[in-house]
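re: ur question from earlier - yeah i can do the single chain one, its not a big deal. heres the input i used so u can compare w yours
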Amino acid sequence: MIVLILIFEAVVIALTALGCRLKHKWHHRAGWHIGIIGAILAATIFSLPSDWHLLTHLESWSWKRSHDKESLSSVLFGFLWLTGMAVPVALFVVYLYRKNTESRAMRPNLH
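and the output i got, formated as tokens:
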């Protein structure tokens, strides 16, 4: 279980860092929304494999738990739990990236 959490957090860091790098490449400052988007993308990537059956078989959709149907509320809870776990890490990545790019901009060019 801890290994899966570490892999999930690594995916969050990679997606958020990719977003920050793209913003920097386009000469924009990385916004805090990049962290939220990275967290949501990572939660979606990790939620899809476990909930694929539910998403592809519409007749099995149910908001309430029953013995023969999977619950949409449990899927939504899992997605929100993963997103909530990813947001602090993603925002920390954005903070470090913004701090690093600001310190680079303040350094004199020694070329």
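The chain has one domain: 2-103. not sure if urs matches, ping me
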